[in-house]
Each structure stands twice: as C-alpha cells, then as structure tokens.
C-alpha cells in the first residue's frame, strides 16, 4: 500500500516501492507532476533489461536500415563493415531535443511515419568518419606540438 506523501515534493516509485523526491525522477512534461512514474535508478534498470531482451531485434533492425542506406559510408565509401562500425549521423545543422530522436530509439519503434521523417535527417557514416566530423580536426602530433 502506498504511504501518504506530499505530492508537491515527492512521488511513489512502483519499481523500488519507495517514496522519493521529485528530482530523483526524470522530467516528463506530460505527467501531472512533471516527472516519470519510475525513479531514475529503476528507469535505468528497466531500460537495461529491455535492451538485453531486445538485442537481436535491435541488431536486425539496424542491419536492415544500413542496407536501406546503401551499406556504404557516405564519406570514405567503405562498404560491408560490421554493423557496430556504422553510425547514423544527423546531418541537420541545428538540433534540439524536440527536433530529433536518436537512431537507436527509432530503430525499434513501430511508428512508420516517425521513422520516415527521422531517416531524412540521417546519413550513414563509418565510425572513423563520424569521429572526424565531430572531432577537433587535429592529429595527435599537432595537439602535442601546441
């Protein structure tokens, strides 16, 4: 049975069956209290469990997307790499949390419209080319000589 709590400062977590402060929960603007129902610790446990259960399904979905994107890095033209060597890079200039979702989140979604809208924002890169795009643009020797 849930204990009586001050709902303005605390929330009951059904995962660990305890009352916690609201800042122990992730934000959720759709909820009346503005936070998720499970605390951050329980959310992490649930996500780890979900990812573990759905690993094969997620790999198959990523492999399908890689093939759909031509199985080739757009920068260096490398092909047939291991699927973990490919990265879906957002090529849009400005991104904020409401304008895009991570490819790993989209891979297992069943919302076809969301997938097609998001795919327009991605390009397929190998991990090396992705790090070049996001890196500082200097070699180790150049960094050490400064």
Report the radius of gyration as a whole number of Å.
Answer: 20 Å
Give the percentage of residues in beta strands.
Answer: 15-25%
Percent range for helical residues?
25-40%
From the spread of the alpha carbons, the general shape counts as extended
Which class of secondary structure composition applies to the elements?
A: alpha+beta
Distance between the termini: 63 Å
Q: What is the count of structural domains?
A: 2
Give short descriptive properties of this protein.
146 residues, extended, 38% helix, single chain, alpha+beta, two-stranded antiparallel ribbon, 6 helices
Task: Describe the overall structure.
By secondary structure, the protein is α+β, with helices and mostly antiparallel strands. The chain folds into two domains: 10-47, no CATH class; 55-134, no CATH class. The protein is 38% helix and 18% strand. The chain is built from six helices and six strands. The chain has helices at residues 40-53, 55-68, 103-107, 112-119, 127-134, 140-145; strands at residues 10-13, 18-21, 25-27, 35-39, 86-90, 122-126. It has a two-stranded antiparallel ribbon with strand order 1-2. A hairpin with a 4-residue loop joins strand 1 (10-13) and strand 2 (18-21). The termini are far apart. The model is unreliable at 95-100 (pLDDT under 50).
């Amino acid at each position: 049975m849930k204990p009586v709590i001050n709902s303005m400062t605390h929330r009951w977590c059904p995962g660990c069956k305890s009352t916690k402060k609201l800042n122990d929960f992730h934000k959720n603007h759709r909820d009346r209290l503005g936070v998720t129902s499970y605390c951050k610790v329980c959310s992490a446990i649930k996500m780890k469990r979900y990812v573990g259960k759905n690993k094969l399904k997620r790999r198959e979905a990523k492999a399908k997307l890689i093939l759909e994107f031509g199985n080739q890095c757009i920068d260096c033209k490398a092909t047939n790499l291991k699927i973990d060597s490919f990265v879906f890079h957002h090529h849009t200039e400005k991104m904020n949390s409401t304008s895009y979702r991570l490819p790993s989140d989209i891979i297992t979604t069943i919302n076809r419209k969301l997938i097609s809208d998001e795919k327009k924002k991605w390009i397929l890169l190998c991990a090396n080319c992705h790090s070049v795009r996001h890196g500082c643009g200097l070699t180790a020797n150049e960094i050490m000589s400064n």
